[in-house]
Amino acid sequence: MTTLKKLTHKQWFAVLVLVIGIIIIWYIAALVMNGNQMINMLERTGQSWTYTQIFEGAYGIQRPPLPVPHQVAYELYDSIFNNAITSKRSLLYHTQITLNSTLLGFILGSLLGIIIAIGIVHNRTLDTSLMPWVIASQTVPILAIAPIVVVVLGSMNLTGILPKAIISMYLSFFPVVIGMVKGLRSADKLHTELMITYNASTQQMFWKLRWFSAQPYLFASLKIGIAAALVGAIVAELPTGAQGGLGARLLSGSYYGQTVQIWSALVMSALLGWVLITLVGLAERFILLRRGIS
Amino acid sequence: MQAVETLTEITREPRSHRQMIAIDKLSLVFETNDGPVHALSDIDLTIHEGDFVSFIGPSGCGKTTLLRVIADLEQPTGGEIQVGGTSPEDARLNRLYGYVFQAPALFPWRSIASNCALPMEISAQPKTHRNAQIDKYLGMVGLQDFKHKFPWQLSGGMQQRASIARALCLEPELLLMDEPFGALDEITRDHLNMELLKIWKATGKTVVFVTHSIPEAVLLSTHIVVMSPRPGRIVKVIKSPLPRDKTLALRDTQAFTALAAEIRQALATDHQID
Amino acid sequence: MKTLLTLLAITLLLLQSGIALFLPKGFYQGTFLLPLLLLSLFAAGYLMSRMTQIADGQSQWAKPCKLAVPALFGLMILLVWEAIVRGFDVPLVLMPAPTQVFVTLGNNLPLLWADFQQTYLKAVVAGYVMGCGLGFITAKLVVRNAFLQKGLLPLGNFMASIPIIGIAPIMVMWFGFDWQSKAAVVVIMTFFPMLINTLAGLRSVDPLHADLMYTYAAGKGQIFFKNQLPQAMPFIFNALKLNSTLALIGAIVAEFFGTPIVGMGFRISAEVGRMNMDMVWATIFVAALAGSLSYGALALLERRVTFWHPSVRSGR
Question: Model-level pTM greater than 0.90?
Fold first, then answer.
């Protein structure tokens, strides 16, 4: 009994139990929802039904209201491994499209954000004029601009990855600016005064002190930024719908009622988001650990 | 000159004979990853009504732990303890004592007056009574002009005075204080020590006071309990020969110095810290 | 010298505004007025740095100047926008001028109000209240159970890293095209930040305060309302502010996936399809206004409730 008690103190065990619980609830809910749909369909065609019939069929219908995990898993497997990566039926094809715009936008947005943040911290006028707008932009649903950007750039014949990357860049820019400004200003007061006694120049202050104090904040906002870039890329695919990408896949799935397709695209996006953030987290641990910050 | 008492009995003043706290063979063992820790071992102690008792000793000697056992904040693993004639839990549920922590522990979202009202709100006392108590005890600690200020607007010493006033508002018979002046500078500390003595004399309460300052223990107490760590135990209980009416000038007298030396000696024996 | 330059800058800006607003369209084609725009940018920059210097000082003009600088910056953006669109006679389907957007806004108030009701008053408010409420209640239920917390925290972090907005098509399938599905999206988006923050807040109680309540033999309800809840308020407001933005974004973007013929998201995607860019910008303006006013209201409420917190006291 004590081993069970000890297990409950471990994080992975708690997560495992929770995930198993969710899966169980999922299966039960699917039974109820899919079963209801089956019943409605059968009653409409005037057929009689039995519970065993429902039970056996609920997990296998074509367009279930709630696909079960194994259906989604099969669809994922099928679309990833049974299709060439260049085929439009391959989920990897779509993932790679979304990933490209996400990464491009994220890198551009982060660089721009860092540069602007450095400007804000070192130039008082930029600080008073620009910073309030950066903070205010957090309250505004910027994502709503996505269709405009896509369409306007499209009419200038700039299609494909560029408009999506611009939206991703725009979305990841703001958290990076805010985090970086906070970080650059977070240098320990005593450290700053020490540098002043050494008569350090502004550049030296930056490279030898502020850049380091900013890094924990920078990484935290990079995680937010990359998640925002992913959302931007997905939403940017909605207006034009056509070409490809996970957002396009979600949209086409919802148009044609292909629920399993929707769920598999959703799972793929979730995985992508989680992987991207974990990668940033790993980079963070590697860099910060080398400097002794846990 | 010095009246060295045995470990089990303290002669009392010719006032009330009532035992406030009776502790018999008390022990507290913590189970840790590195094995059992004997925080308290075989404690025998009796405290009478109206006494001012200090617990003094180096860190780890169990003085705070013992205070927390009395307050029902920790449970002993062996032995018996009675507070006010009942178990510590019943004493706590009947609000027999007021506890003053090392830090003021005032709620920053409440004004000073509102902080003092907190225990009275919890025990559902009527508002007029609450306000009367607040005025009385804030007046006693000299903070009546700061009733509507917030904790962060007061200095450390003033916050600690407010915390004492709060403990007094429920008018408990017993006051438990855990190094309340430890974080303050010496000048403020002297001032607050005298204030505490005045309050003690005016209210006749029993006070149990944890400190690591020998002069403070000598100045304030009727009885000094010297403790030692590993395992936490009582080394000596010293009854103070100093008069009950004290002033700061007392610190330069021979009786004071002698008592302090006795405490220092008790602390030095039994372990290698000198 | 300084006052001379300041007067020169102001004159330049006024001149530029006049050009942008009153000259017939196409005034940058074939003329040499464009360098004037650049000059006026420098002028604005100069004015802003002068005002910043005053804002850093101690005079009575310090506070107004501090507000005037970002205001001027915003106005400059609008000015440049207006000048370039009208000066180069940019087609309306590509980019409308700010004045045009405001005219359209004024002309379509009933329509925009109906959209606002559908998206904000129905989907956003209902979803926000339910999502935050559920998150709060779950946190209260879970705070005493370390095991559940250990499982929920990583789950919450996972949910924060994924594009939850993708759940919109599924919600449309389950709850129909109307505002209920959008509210469902908002509920899911706001639930986890509220849960994580409330949990962190309830757990942030100073152990000394917990001991204090114990010595008062306080009941569970008393401990919750007198100690834990006030202490958790800074965290809760953090989540409430974040959620207000998420809720608006969620409702609008969810409408991109399908909605009846009303709603801000619908308006944007429909008018984009018809290339009525001025209407699109008008809707975005309404959305931005709604977002910033909601956030501002919450921030004001936060100042009143958490007046005691160090970050509020020292004035961030």
Answer: no
